[in-house]
Amino acid sequence: MTRKKVKLAFIANDAARKATFKKRRKGLIKKVSELSTLCGIEACAIIYSPYETQPEVWPSPVGVQRVLSQFRQMPEMEQSKKMVNQESFLRQRIAKAGEQ
């Protein structure tokens, strides 16, 4: 059985939006965990939710602090190589599509 394509649009129903958020948050944390295990890397996730007062962190607050401190200790040039915002990401994708 195949899954139907999900329409990416704002979910107006509050209960449905909250349920979708919880499912997708769980899936995102699972993906970060799998990436960390399969590739042998240190990874973390910080998820802010409108439904909770505190952000959810994975793997633990101490683990997140360790990953962030390692990142901050990198030279600034190395840090900027690994940082992407929405605008630069889209520019890279457009440039890559133009090359093909």
Largest sheet: 2 strands, antiparallel
What is the topology, as strand order, of the major beta sheet? 1-2
Shape: extended
Distance between the termini: 33 Å
Treating each run of at least 4 consecutive H or I residues as one helix, how many helices? Answer: 4
Protein structure class: mainly alpha
Q: Which spans of ≥5 residues are poorly predicted at pLDDT below 50? A: none
Q: Give the tally of structural domains.
A: 1
Instruction: Find the CATH superfamily.
Output: Transcription factor, MADS-box
- CATH architectural name: 3-Layer(aba) Sandwich
Q: State the CATH class.
A: Alpha Beta
Helix content: 55-70%
What is the chain-wise order of helices and strands?
HEEHHH
Q: What is the topology?
A:
Layout: H1 14-39, E1 45-47, E2 56-58, H2 61-73, H3 76-82, H4 86-99
Domain MADS-box: 1-49
Subcellular location: Nucleus
Pfam families: SRF-TF
Question: How would you explain this protein's 3D organization?
Answer:
- The chain has a single domain, classed as 3-Layer(aba) Sandwich (SRF-like), CATH 3.40.1810.
- The longest helix has 26 residues, at 14-39.
- The chain is extended and about 45 Å long.
- The protein has helices at residues 14-39, 61-73, 76-82, 86-99; strands at residues 45-47, 56-58.
- It has a two-stranded antiparallel ribbon.
- The chain is mainly alpha-helical and 100 residues long.
